[in-house]
User: Fold these one by one.
Assistant:
Number 1:
Amino acid sequence: MATQTAAQRKAAARKAAATRKRNATARRAKNTKAAAKRTASSTRVTASTSTSAAKGTATSAERTAESGLAAGAATLNVVAAQAERAVLIPVGAALVARDNLVEAAKPYTRGRDSAQRRVQTDIRKFERRGTTARNRFQREVKRTRTRVERELRQRRNQVTRLVRRNRREAERQVKAARREVRSQVERVQDQVTSLA
């Protein structure tokens, strides 16, 4: 069985860490979506007991929450595409490097010692170039991930604030409707009592 080089172990560890982070992000998005649905559901139940104006408020809150979640899902698709690129680019680079290495090794097959030194020098040069490209790509992915996470947090906070505001408004309208009904009931009871 072939042993892994330090670079290969490091690459495998980074890949595993990226997979764990993607999975954690997906779980957080799923939990956020479920919480938004529960909030929308409780808003619908509260709104159904109030006047038609309260129903309209709850419906608009639900639509806003769903549109925010759809935007979050679209952002997750962008992250998935970036992750796929992260896998495909190193594979393509490795194949191009292998082809270049085979072509570069052909003239050196005559003198073994000097050819071996040249091949090792070229391999080190290719490895350094590959490391530079990998580091550049990782920085780009990290910047993109940070931006996407920031946008998701901002959108989630906006939706949460909107749902809270709409819920408070719906509850206010329900209380007002209850007070109005109670006052009318008491008025009717007073009139019935005065007639009797």
Number 2:
Amino acid sequence: MIFKRLCSVVVAALMLFLIVLAGIFAVPGIFGTHVYAVASGSMEPEYKVGSLVFAKRADVESIRPGDCITYSFGNSTVTHRVVTVDHEQKNCITKGDANEQEDPPVNFDRIIGVTDSFSLPVLGYLVIWLNETNAEMFFGCLILIMLLITATDVLALLKRRRRR
């Protein structure tokens, strides 16, 4: 009996966790905002390692020095502060707040969006970990476990109703 109650609590907690995660990643997307995890300390103290940052698509004409932008860099993304904008060359120069040197020029077509000053600490570690592992397998196993526990609860409930 205690085991079943514990399983129910665990399933409820996992479902709540998944709903919150889905909200964090899905809801901003509805409004054109993308969510990224901070994997390095180049922007500390503005964005701490392991934080989630939110980048909203913006017209390149509106980007100004001092704005933080997120841009693609090979297979990853970078969030750094704009130092200069060159509309003739269609690029900008960025620099991490904690870095000594400026970055190479970033072409406008690589800019994903302007990054909010708001960030969610710690949650980015989960994203970083999932990127390093097989996220589909992890969530698939998690959902399978929740379904199995829920199925045993439903079967137990049906047995109790039959006895009455």
Number 3:
Amino acid sequence: MLQPATGRIGNFDSEHDSDAKVHELMNNTRWGGYRSAITDRELVSNRQLDPSTRRARSVHNYCGTDWTTANSQCTIPCPDGESTWCPDGQNCFADVTSCPGMVISSTAEGTTWSPETSINNADGGTETAGFGQVNMPISQQTATVSSVSAALPAHCPNTPQVSIGYYQSWARYRTCHPVSPSSIDAKGLTHVIYSFAGIQNGRLDAYNGVVDEYSAYAEFNKIRSQGVKTLIAVGGWTFDQSLFTQVASSAESRSIFAQSCVDFMRTHGFDGLDIDWEYPVSRQGTPQDYDNLVLLSRSLREAFGTQYLLTIAIPASVDKLSQGYDMSNLKLYMDWMHVMSYDIYGSWDENAGSNTDMGYISNTVEYLLNYMDSSQLVLGLASYGRSMALVDGECTIAGCPIKGGAITGCSGELGFIPYFELKESYIDTKMYESMLFNEATGSMEMVVPVDNGGKVWISLDVEQSWKVKQEFAMDK
């Protein structure tokens, strides 16, 4: 049985979203032998791009002596997240949401970037629109899923159910429904993951070395008194992925990193580590990453023993998986793996498509089941929408041409709208032209008119489509 689903608490506010608990339903049971004939690219539209080929994204990266300074001054951008853009004594800080956004494009020839521009939105205000493609950092994603009661299929053993949620550490800084570590309601959860930590001098440490995070860890780990276990996630989309390559490259560096993880968890009170390497080999990596990720995982497991949990987030892309992940051996050292089954389509593509397309998810699952038992798989669910500007207001279904992102949510990211904001601003108020369930993709499609006469297409999930994905997992 597949385990649904990854929950990002940072975009959840129980006061404003009481119908949807942010958590991860992980029924640690066998999934069964599900197989699909759908190929990796047979999706809503054959004209769309495979997510593994994306090279553009919207970012808010700026230099500073610390995150607070970078967020308040917004002086020197560091688009690709590298501190080489910064003066001596400063580092590059990601998710500096008070500063203007920029669109970064990476190619074999190098990295280019351009500022985002403004367009009118449906409420008469202004939103940002980038020049070209946009790819939201994975670290900005959220996943929410409501609790459902479902009997286990007869072929599934009656093993314990685990519910997991991610906490976005930067959610405490946003202006809309901020979430501090102390405000987390862990009711219904068994595990909560703090995202993200980083790597400093080959050792696990606070993200970008921001020591203010230490007090946040202490505040966060007070939720253990609610009866949950906590993990620290290292990495994320905006992280310098080459740091993973470095710590995994030799027996000595792996041993140093593994011991630093034990020291870090012991010092700050975590129960485990979640690896968010995005992605070995194919992104800021080397061919050796394929073998070295397994060796790193083995070193971590040897250092952790049974005292600490070890998990990993993996992409919902067969291309990425086959290039960078030796699943047959990686599974030997992981307690479970999170399948990031979202961001399948978005404003970076040429045509509208589902953020959580079931055909694509099924194909990824088929691949994974060739290498591992389903009891180690966790299906990620998204509680955010992807907004796309339609080229033709008369063509408003999946597969229609788009021209980049459209509505910017309160998170400040173009084309990314948290579920609670979709619910408050559009669903509850019925401020949309249409909202339909697409049986082929297992997700919702909303069309919203804007002041300039155009229309915006939004892919999202609600109770109905979350239940489809949950039942898919339970049945398999």
Number 4:
Amino acid sequence: MILAFQLFSGTVNEVFGAFNSRIPFKEALYKGSTSHETLSNFLSVPRTTNNTFASERTLESLQVTIRSTLQIADYLWSKGYKYVLTGKLNQNSLERHFGVLRSLSCDDPPSTIDFLQSHLLQCIYVPAEQALSLKGNCEPKVETSLTSFVNQMRL
């Protein structure tokens, strides 16, 4: 029983390692790489009620996530990309965005109008800040006006 748990937890640790690749040549997901095989092999882990290490729903959710990640990787590889940094396929940016919106509302949950106004302001502020920042790694698009961002948000 302990050996089976160690095997299962080691496999899950490898799966999470494959999901958190952020270094292009060392950890990235390549076609046929160890990370690719780890993710592919985890799809065959049975989702049975006899499994005492993880619930059926947990395993099913993990397999949906793995399947989606592999489909994204296959699509990107078919378009000529050599590797995928799976650590970039997470929801941290969304959590940061909604965290900022929550922090603006103090203790009260924002109304629909407050939420929309805060969201629009953040959508204008962030691109403008990035375009005007000297720390950016790309040329700012000076010809793009701030009102074009507002118009895009209204669509």
